[in-house]
Amino acid sequence: MTLSRLPRIPRPQRLSEEVGAVLGERIWSGAFAPGERLPTEARLSEEFAVSRAVVREAIARLKADGLVESRQGAGAFVVRRPGAGVFRMERSMGGAGVTGEIFELRLIIEVAAAERAALRHTPVQLKAMAAALARMEEAVACGEDGASFDDDFHCAIAEASGNPLIGRFVAFVSQEFSASRAPTWSADGVFRGLARAAQDEHRAVFEAIASGDAEAAGQAAHQHLINAAGRLGVAVPTPPATGVQHVDKGMA
Hints:
By secondary structure, the chain is mostly helical.
């Protein structure tokens, strides 16, 4: 007997993650200023009503996120430039899920990457895009989660942009961008046809890149991201008017 695909079970947040999130927000808000010493483990343990081990783990997470540093014998201090060495979207997402800011960032990066990929891709890079596209097609047909292949597809486009910094940046934040793709590839998203719609748009981007049409590639990438945001009920921020009569074809 073939078992139907089971839904994902949300992982409960650990106490240390909750404590770390609160402390992180205090740092980002300026409640703890750059260079300021954090309260002692004992004081934080009392404030949050958790063990010192939980506080210690929370502070270790803040260190990994590039927000605090330890000074031997003195305790933990907010770094001078919080988050400068690490890029995470939790703060932008605010714990509420996918936001318009995430899609706006994707528009800025991925439209430009698609335009350049149309002009600069190599046969090997085009093959990598096609392979990811085929894997997503199979996932849609089987009703499975193809989010990782979606990541592969967009990373392949960035790699084909011909700018290694674009490729490296998209690879660096690919796990962060996954948050905006996960709802489409969830069991509910596949059932509702969101994955199929996204896949049709992926194919349009691919075909424009393969044909070497930079304008069409940019427009297809732009439309895909606007549609993806719309499918999730997310409003993408509109750039403010500057008074300059200029239209970016890739963003039109």
